[in-house]
Design goal:
It comes from Mytilus coruscus (Sea mussel). It holds the Pfam family Tyrosinase. GO terms for molecular function: metal ion binding; oxidoreductase activity. This is Tyrosinase copper-binding domain-containing protein. It is a single chain. With 125 residues, this protein is mainly α. It has one domain. The chain is built from 5 helices and 2 strands, in the order αββαααα. 26% of the residues are buried.
Amino acid sequence: MACPYWDPTLDNELNNPSDSCLFTDKFAGNPNGKIELPNDNWEHEEGGYVIRNVGGFGGELLTKKNVYDVLSRKRHAQITNSKSRHHFLEELHGKCHSFVGGNMVKLITAPQDPLFWNLHAFVDC
């Protein structure tokens, strides 16, 4: 199985990242409200629909500098220690969840949004 990744650093370079072509019907669906995908009315297993509020919950997308800062660390502990905020991978990726909003904001519902898997294909590699 292959999972395409979402590189949020590319969208971060836009004047308004929420205007990215990613948030269109051609790719990941609309940016706000119930997402419309090729398989319309897709419900998650607890019922209800996948909701987004791109840019509405704050958050921010990763920058190329964020990626460089994380990859330039020499020890795993340097990216998993919350005291090193510029290199703390969990916080950096969490800001992407907040940027997408909706289901992506909560730990329990984040995997219901297909973008969760695309983001993690990038961050977890």
